[in-house]
Fold this sequence. Notes:
It contains 10 helices and 14 strands. The chain is an alpha/beta fold. The chain is elongated, with a radius of gyration of 22 Å.
Amino acid sequence: MNLGYFIVEKHKSKILLGNLLTVPKDYSTGFLAPLSLFSQSDLVTKTKNWEKILSNIIRNIESNYKIDDYVIDNCHEIFDIVNDNFDNRPIIKELRKIFKNTGILDRVYFSDNNLDLMNIEGMPNRPHPYFLGWNGDKSVRIGSHRHFQKKFLFMNRIDKFHRRWLLGRFISDDLLSEMDWSYNVNNPDAYIHKVLGKSERETGSEVVTYVTHDFMTECFCHIVCETNFNLSTRDIKAEGGYTRGNRFITEKTEKAFTTASPFIIASGPRYLEKLHELGFKTFNDWWDESYDKISNPKKRLEAILNVVKYINTKSHEELIDMWQEMKPVLKHNQDLNKWHYIQNLNSINTRFPGHFMANVEGLYFNSSGNLTGPAEVFKTYKTV
Protein backbone atom coordinates (compact mmCIF):
# COMPACT_ATOMS: atom_id res chain seq x y z
CA MET A 1 0.00 0.00 0.00
CA ASN A 2 1.18 3.52 -0.84
CA LEU A 3 0.57 4.59 2.74
CA GLY A 4 -1.19 7.88 3.43
CA TYR A 5 -2.57 8.24 6.95
CA PHE A 6 -4.55 6.62 9.75
CA ILE A 7 -7.84 7.70 11.33
CA VAL A 8 -8.97 6.77 14.84
CA GLU A 9 -12.33 7.78 16.36
CA LYS A 10 -12.42 9.32 19.82
CA HIS A 11 -15.70 9.43 21.76
CA LYS A 12 -15.19 11.57 24.86
CA SER A 13 -12.77 9.48 26.96
CA LYS A 14 -13.02 6.38 24.77
CA ILE A 15 -10.93 5.41 21.76
CA LEU A 16 -12.74 3.11 19.31
CA LEU A 17 -9.61 1.31 18.25
CA GLY A 18 -11.53 -1.29 16.27
CA ASN A 19 -12.55 1.48 13.86
CA LEU A 20 -8.94 2.40 13.06
CA LEU A 21 -8.73 3.01 9.31
CA THR A 22 -5.61 2.70 7.17
CA VAL A 23 -5.92 5.10 4.23
CA PRO A 24 -3.71 4.86 1.11
CA LYS A 25 -2.17 8.01 -0.31
CA ASP A 26 -4.14 7.71 -3.57
CA TYR A 27 -7.46 6.97 -1.83
CA SER A 28 -10.64 8.54 -3.23
CA THR A 29 -13.42 6.05 -2.54
CA GLY A 30 -14.04 2.40 -1.73
CA PHE A 31 -14.06 0.04 1.25
CA LEU A 32 -11.41 0.40 3.93
CA ALA A 33 -10.96 -2.66 6.17
CA PRO A 34 -10.76 -1.47 9.82
CA LEU A 35 -8.59 -2.98 12.54
CA SER A 36 -11.62 -4.92 13.87
CA LEU A 37 -11.19 -7.30 10.92
CA PHE A 38 -7.80 -8.26 12.40
CA SER A 39 -6.02 -10.60 9.94
CA GLN A 40 -8.11 -9.12 7.12
CA SER A 41 -7.61 -5.48 8.12
CA ASP A 42 -5.68 -3.06 5.94
CA LEU A 43 -3.37 -2.28 8.86
CA VAL A 44 -2.22 -5.90 9.08
CA THR A 45 -2.34 -6.94 5.43
CA LYS A 46 -1.06 -3.80 3.71
CA THR A 47 1.14 -1.98 6.20
CA LYS A 48 4.83 -2.74 6.69
CA ASN A 49 5.84 -2.79 10.37
CA TRP A 50 2.21 -2.38 11.43
CA GLU A 51 3.06 -3.35 15.01
CA LYS A 52 5.47 -0.40 15.35
CA ILE A 53 3.02 2.05 13.74
CA LEU A 54 0.14 0.98 15.98
CA SER A 55 2.38 1.30 19.03
CA ASN A 56 3.29 4.85 17.95
CA ILE A 57 -0.38 5.73 17.46
CA ILE A 58 -1.25 4.53 20.97
CA ARG A 59 1.70 6.34 22.56
CA ASN A 60 0.72 9.57 20.80
CA ILE A 61 -2.86 9.23 22.05
CA GLU A 62 -1.61 8.61 25.57
CA SER A 63 0.63 11.69 25.43
CA ASN A 64 -2.11 14.03 24.25
CA TYR A 65 -5.40 12.81 25.75
CA LYS A 66 -6.81 11.35 28.96
CA ILE A 67 -8.31 8.06 27.84
CA ASP A 68 -10.33 5.76 30.11
CA ASP A 69 -11.00 2.95 27.65
CA TYR A 70 -9.75 1.55 24.38
CA VAL A 71 -12.60 -0.32 22.73
CA ILE A 72 -12.04 -2.88 19.99
CA ASP A 73 -15.57 -2.76 18.66
CA ASN A 74 -17.47 -4.05 15.63
CA CYS A 75 -15.46 -7.25 15.67
CA HIS A 76 -16.71 -9.63 13.01
CA GLU A 77 -15.95 -13.33 12.62
CA ILE A 78 -12.91 -13.29 14.86
CA PHE A 79 -12.74 -17.07 15.28
CA ASP A 80 -11.02 -19.56 13.04
CA ILE A 81 -14.07 -21.83 13.37
CA VAL A 82 -16.27 -19.21 11.67
CA ASN A 83 -14.34 -19.05 8.45
CA ASP A 84 -11.83 -21.67 7.31
CA ASN A 85 -9.87 -19.10 5.31
CA PHE A 86 -8.36 -17.15 8.21
CA ASP A 87 -7.32 -17.46 11.82
CA ASN A 88 -7.21 -14.23 13.82
CA ARG A 89 -5.65 -15.63 16.97
CA PRO A 90 -2.00 -14.76 16.10
CA ILE A 91 -3.00 -11.14 15.38
CA ILE A 92 -4.99 -10.84 18.61
CA LYS A 93 -2.03 -12.25 20.56
CA GLU A 94 0.21 -9.65 18.93
CA LEU A 95 -2.29 -6.90 19.79
CA ARG A 96 -2.25 -8.01 23.42
CA LYS A 97 1.53 -7.70 23.43
CA ILE A 98 1.31 -4.18 21.97
CA PHE A 99 -1.31 -3.13 24.53
CA LYS A 100 0.86 -4.44 27.37
CA ASN A 101 4.01 -2.72 26.09
CA THR A 102 2.20 0.63 25.65
CA GLY A 103 0.67 0.45 29.15
CA ILE A 104 -3.02 0.31 28.16
CA LEU A 105 -3.79 -3.41 28.60
CA ASP A 106 -5.93 -2.85 31.71
CA ARG A 107 -8.06 -0.32 29.76
CA VAL A 108 -8.71 -2.44 26.68
CA TYR A 109 -11.93 -4.34 26.09
CA PHE A 110 -13.62 -5.90 23.08
CA SER A 111 -17.22 -5.36 21.99
CA ASP A 112 -17.90 -8.37 19.82
CA ASN A 113 -21.09 -9.78 18.33
CA ASN A 114 -20.38 -13.17 19.87
CA LEU A 115 -22.94 -12.92 22.67
CA ASP A 116 -21.41 -15.75 24.70
CA LEU A 117 -17.79 -14.63 24.59
CA MET A 118 -16.56 -12.94 27.76
CA ASN A 119 -12.80 -13.23 27.27
CA ILE A 120 -10.47 -12.85 24.29
CA GLU A 121 -6.83 -13.72 24.92
CA GLY A 122 -7.13 -12.60 28.53
CA MET A 123 -8.88 -9.35 27.59
CA PRO A 124 -12.55 -8.74 28.55
CA ASN A 125 -15.35 -8.76 26.00
CA ARG A 126 -18.59 -6.84 26.46
CA PRO A 127 -20.92 -8.50 23.92
CA HIS A 128 -23.36 -6.47 21.86
CA PRO A 129 -25.69 -7.61 19.01
CA TYR A 130 -24.75 -4.72 16.74
CA PHE A 131 -26.54 -6.09 13.66
CA LEU A 132 -29.96 -5.63 15.26
CA GLY A 133 -31.80 -2.68 13.73
CA TRP A 134 -29.50 -2.31 10.73
CA ASN A 135 -32.39 -2.47 8.26
CA GLY A 136 -35.07 -1.11 10.60
CA ASP A 137 -35.72 1.85 8.32
CA LYS A 138 -36.64 -0.56 5.52
CA SER A 139 -39.25 -2.44 7.56
CA VAL A 140 -41.99 -3.88 5.38
CA ARG A 141 -45.52 -2.82 6.21
CA ILE A 142 -47.51 -5.66 7.74
CA GLY A 143 -50.70 -5.56 5.72
CA SER A 144 -53.94 -7.44 6.13
CA HIS A 145 -52.94 -10.14 3.69
CA ARG A 146 -49.81 -11.72 2.26
CA HIS A 147 -49.56 -14.04 -0.74
CA PHE A 148 -46.69 -16.49 -1.08
CA GLN A 149 -45.05 -17.59 -4.31
CA LYS A 150 -42.81 -20.06 -2.47
CA LYS A 151 -42.78 -21.65 0.95
CA PHE A 152 -39.14 -20.93 1.84
CA LEU A 153 -36.38 -18.39 1.31
CA PHE A 154 -32.90 -19.93 1.59
CA MET A 155 -30.11 -17.38 0.95
CA ASN A 156 -26.42 -18.17 1.29
CA ARG A 157 -23.76 -15.64 0.36
CA ILE A 158 -20.82 -17.89 1.26
CA ASP A 159 -20.30 -21.64 1.14
CA LYS A 160 -20.15 -23.16 4.64
CA PHE A 161 -20.59 -26.68 5.94
CA HIS A 162 -24.05 -26.37 7.46
CA ARG A 163 -25.36 -24.49 4.41
CA ARG A 164 -23.89 -27.07 2.05
CA TRP A 165 -25.36 -29.94 4.10
CA LEU A 166 -28.85 -28.43 4.07
CA LEU A 167 -28.66 -27.61 0.35
CA GLY A 168 -27.66 -31.19 -0.39
CA ARG A 169 -30.59 -32.55 1.59
CA PHE A 170 -33.01 -30.07 0.04
CA ILE A 171 -31.89 -31.33 -3.37
CA SER A 172 -32.05 -35.02 -2.48
CA ASP A 173 -35.42 -34.65 -0.71
CA ASP A 174 -36.90 -32.64 -3.60
CA LEU A 175 -37.56 -29.50 -1.55
CA LEU A 176 -35.89 -26.86 -3.73
CA SER A 177 -38.94 -26.43 -5.95
CA GLU A 178 -40.65 -24.69 -3.00
CA MET A 179 -37.70 -22.39 -2.34
CA ASP A 180 -36.24 -19.17 -3.62
CA TRP A 181 -32.57 -19.75 -2.96
CA SER A 182 -29.07 -18.46 -3.54
CA TYR A 183 -25.59 -19.85 -3.02
CA ASN A 184 -22.04 -18.53 -3.42
CA VAL A 185 -23.48 -15.28 -4.74
CA ASN A 186 -20.13 -13.51 -5.15
CA ASN A 187 -18.30 -16.45 -6.68
CA PRO A 188 -19.48 -17.16 -10.24
CA ASP A 189 -16.79 -19.81 -10.62
CA ALA A 190 -18.01 -21.87 -7.67
CA TYR A 191 -19.31 -25.41 -8.14
CA ILE A 192 -22.75 -24.08 -7.15
CA HIS A 193 -23.48 -20.45 -7.92
CA LYS A 194 -26.96 -18.96 -7.80
CA VAL A 195 -27.99 -15.33 -7.23
CA LEU A 196 -31.33 -13.80 -6.29
CA GLY A 197 -31.60 -10.21 -7.39
CA LYS A 198 -28.30 -8.33 -7.45
CA SER A 199 -25.18 -9.69 -5.80
CA GLU A 200 -23.20 -7.88 -3.14
CA ARG A 201 -20.66 -7.02 -5.82
CA GLU A 202 -23.33 -5.11 -7.70
CA THR A 203 -24.95 -3.37 -4.72
CA GLY A 204 -21.71 -2.69 -2.88
CA SER A 205 -23.27 -3.73 0.42
CA GLU A 206 -23.72 -7.07 2.12
CA VAL A 207 -26.12 -5.69 4.72
CA VAL A 208 -28.72 -4.10 2.46
CA THR A 209 -28.57 -6.72 -0.30
CA TYR A 210 -32.02 -8.20 -1.00
CA VAL A 211 -34.02 -6.39 1.70
CA THR A 212 -36.22 -4.46 -0.70
CA HIS A 213 -36.73 -7.31 -3.17
CA ASP A 214 -40.20 -8.84 -3.51
CA PHE A 215 -38.98 -12.37 -2.87
CA MET A 216 -38.15 -11.37 0.72
CA THR A 217 -41.89 -11.31 1.47
CA GLU A 218 -43.15 -13.67 -1.24
CA CYS A 219 -41.74 -16.66 0.66
CA PHE A 220 -43.50 -17.78 3.82
CA CYS A 221 -40.50 -18.77 5.96
CA HIS A 222 -36.84 -17.70 6.02
CA ILE A 223 -34.38 -20.56 6.51
CA VAL A 224 -31.60 -18.55 8.13
CA CYS A 225 -28.18 -20.19 8.01
CA GLU A 226 -26.32 -18.00 10.45
CA THR A 227 -22.62 -17.18 10.32
CA ASN A 228 -21.55 -19.80 12.83
CA PHE A 229 -22.62 -23.41 13.25
CA ASN A 230 -20.95 -25.54 15.91
CA LEU A 231 -19.44 -28.46 14.02
CA SER A 232 -18.48 -30.66 16.97
CA THR A 233 -18.85 -30.88 20.74
CA ARG A 234 -15.29 -29.47 20.93
CA ASP A 235 -16.58 -26.24 19.42
CA ILE A 236 -18.81 -25.51 22.40
CA LYS A 237 -15.96 -25.63 24.92
CA ALA A 238 -13.66 -22.79 25.86
CA GLU A 239 -10.17 -23.31 24.47
CA GLY A 240 -7.24 -20.94 24.83
CA GLY A 241 -9.54 -18.11 25.89
CA TYR A 242 -11.87 -18.62 22.93
CA THR A 243 -15.44 -19.78 23.44
CA ARG A 244 -15.77 -21.18 19.96
CA GLY A 245 -19.38 -22.21 20.22
CA ASN A 246 -21.10 -18.88 19.94
CA ARG A 247 -24.42 -17.19 19.31
CA PHE A 248 -23.67 -14.64 16.66
CA ILE A 249 -26.75 -12.67 15.54
CA THR A 250 -26.28 -11.06 12.13
CA GLU A 251 -28.29 -9.25 9.47
CA LYS A 252 -29.47 -12.66 8.23
CA THR A 253 -31.80 -12.95 11.21
CA GLU A 254 -32.44 -9.21 11.33
CA LYS A 255 -33.85 -9.30 7.77
CA ALA A 256 -36.55 -11.72 8.92
CA PHE A 257 -37.60 -9.17 11.55
CA THR A 258 -37.54 -6.38 8.98
CA THR A 259 -39.72 -8.27 6.50
CA ALA A 260 -42.15 -9.64 9.13
CA SER A 261 -41.29 -13.22 8.23
CA PRO A 262 -41.24 -16.36 10.38
CA PHE A 263 -37.89 -18.15 10.46
CA ILE A 264 -35.98 -21.33 11.18
CA ILE A 265 -32.41 -20.75 12.41
CA ALA A 266 -29.50 -23.03 11.50
CA SER A 267 -26.87 -21.93 14.00
CA GLY A 268 -25.31 -23.06 17.25
CA PRO A 269 -27.46 -24.43 20.07
CA ARG A 270 -29.56 -22.06 22.19
CA TYR A 271 -29.65 -19.35 19.52
CA LEU A 272 -33.43 -19.01 19.82
CA GLU A 273 -33.00 -18.92 23.59
CA LYS A 274 -30.75 -15.87 23.19
CA LEU A 275 -33.34 -14.18 20.96
CA HIS A 276 -35.91 -14.77 23.71
CA GLU A 277 -33.54 -13.21 26.28
CA LEU A 278 -33.29 -10.15 24.02
CA GLY A 279 -37.10 -9.90 23.93
CA PHE A 280 -37.86 -11.42 20.52
CA LYS A 281 -40.51 -14.09 19.99
CA THR A 282 -40.25 -17.25 17.88
CA PHE A 283 -42.61 -19.89 16.51
CA ASN A 284 -42.88 -22.84 18.87
CA ASP A 285 -46.68 -22.48 18.80
CA TRP A 286 -46.63 -23.50 15.12
CA TRP A 287 -43.75 -25.99 14.83
CA ASP A 288 -41.19 -27.83 16.92
CA GLU A 289 -38.26 -25.60 17.93
CA SER A 290 -36.57 -28.20 20.13
CA TYR A 291 -33.72 -28.28 17.59
CA ASP A 292 -32.44 -25.19 19.37
CA LYS A 293 -31.52 -27.27 22.42
CA ILE A 294 -29.63 -30.02 20.54
CA SER A 295 -25.86 -29.82 21.07
CA ASN A 296 -24.90 -32.50 18.56
CA PRO A 297 -24.54 -30.65 15.23
CA LYS A 298 -25.63 -33.51 12.96
CA LYS A 299 -28.71 -34.21 15.06
CA ARG A 300 -29.48 -30.50 15.15
CA LEU A 301 -29.32 -30.30 11.34
CA GLU A 302 -31.57 -33.37 11.04
CA ALA A 303 -34.08 -31.76 13.41
CA ILE A 304 -34.02 -28.53 11.38
CA LEU A 305 -34.60 -30.52 8.20
CA ASN A 306 -37.61 -32.21 9.83
CA VAL A 307 -39.12 -28.78 10.59
CA VAL A 308 -38.67 -27.76 6.94
CA LYS A 309 -40.35 -30.99 5.84
CA TYR A 310 -43.23 -30.39 8.24
CA ILE A 311 -43.87 -26.88 6.93
CA ASN A 312 -43.63 -28.20 3.38
CA THR A 313 -46.60 -30.49 4.05
CA LYS A 314 -48.81 -27.41 4.41
CA SER A 315 -50.59 -25.96 1.41
CA HIS A 316 -50.05 -22.34 0.41
CA GLU A 317 -53.53 -21.56 1.71
CA GLU A 318 -52.71 -23.10 5.09
CA LEU A 319 -49.50 -21.08 5.27
CA ILE A 320 -51.40 -17.86 4.54
CA ASP A 321 -53.73 -18.68 7.47
CA MET A 322 -50.70 -19.52 9.64
CA TRP A 323 -49.06 -16.20 8.79
CA GLN A 324 -52.26 -14.40 9.82
CA GLU A 325 -52.11 -16.15 13.20
CA MET A 326 -48.45 -15.13 13.56
CA LYS A 327 -48.99 -11.42 12.87
CA PRO A 328 -48.84 -10.31 16.54
CA VAL A 329 -45.49 -12.11 16.92
CA LEU A 330 -44.15 -10.73 13.64
CA LYS A 331 -45.19 -7.19 14.55
CA HIS A 332 -43.61 -7.53 17.99
CA ASN A 333 -40.30 -8.62 16.43
CA GLN A 334 -40.39 -5.86 13.83
CA ASP A 335 -41.15 -3.19 16.45
CA LEU A 336 -38.33 -4.39 18.72
CA ASN A 337 -35.94 -4.38 15.78
CA LYS A 338 -37.03 -0.81 14.94
CA TRP A 339 -36.24 0.14 18.53
CA HIS A 340 -32.66 -1.03 17.99
CA TYR A 341 -32.56 1.02 14.78
CA ILE A 342 -33.73 4.17 16.59
CA GLN A 343 -31.21 3.64 19.39
CA ASN A 344 -28.41 3.43 16.85
CA LEU A 345 -29.68 6.59 15.14
CA ASN A 346 -29.84 8.60 18.35
CA SER A 347 -26.42 7.60 19.60
CA ILE A 348 -23.21 6.10 18.29
CA ASN A 349 -24.39 2.75 19.52
CA THR A 350 -26.38 1.36 22.44
CA ARG A 351 -23.02 0.08 23.71
CA PHE A 352 -22.00 3.67 24.48
CA PRO A 353 -24.93 5.45 26.18
CA GLY A 354 -24.71 9.22 25.88
CA HIS A 355 -22.12 9.13 23.11
CA PHE A 356 -23.98 11.11 20.48
CA MET A 357 -22.72 11.89 17.02
CA ALA A 358 -21.65 15.38 18.12
CA ASN A 359 -19.16 13.76 20.49
CA VAL A 360 -17.18 12.06 17.72
CA GLU A 361 -13.71 13.38 17.08
CA GLY A 362 -11.46 12.02 14.35
CA LEU A 363 -7.78 11.72 15.29
CA TYR A 364 -5.38 11.71 12.34
CA PHE A 365 -1.95 10.13 12.22
CA ASN A 366 0.70 10.23 9.51
CA SER A 367 2.36 7.22 7.92
CA SER A 368 4.69 6.85 10.90
CA GLY A 369 1.87 6.89 13.43
CA ASN A 370 2.53 10.44 14.63
CA LEU A 371 -0.41 12.68 15.50
CA THR A 372 -1.27 15.28 12.89
CA GLY A 373 -4.27 17.44 12.01
CA PRO A 374 -6.98 16.86 9.39
CA ALA A 375 -6.02 20.07 7.57
CA GLU A 376 -2.49 18.79 7.12
CA VAL A 377 -3.76 15.42 5.94
CA PHE A 378 -6.26 16.84 3.47
CA LYS A 379 -3.71 19.31 2.11
CA THR A 380 -1.47 16.41 1.15
CA TYR A 381 -3.89 13.63 0.26
CA LYS A 382 -7.26 13.11 -1.35
CA THR A 383 -10.09 13.36 1.17
CA VAL A 384 -12.15 10.43 2.39
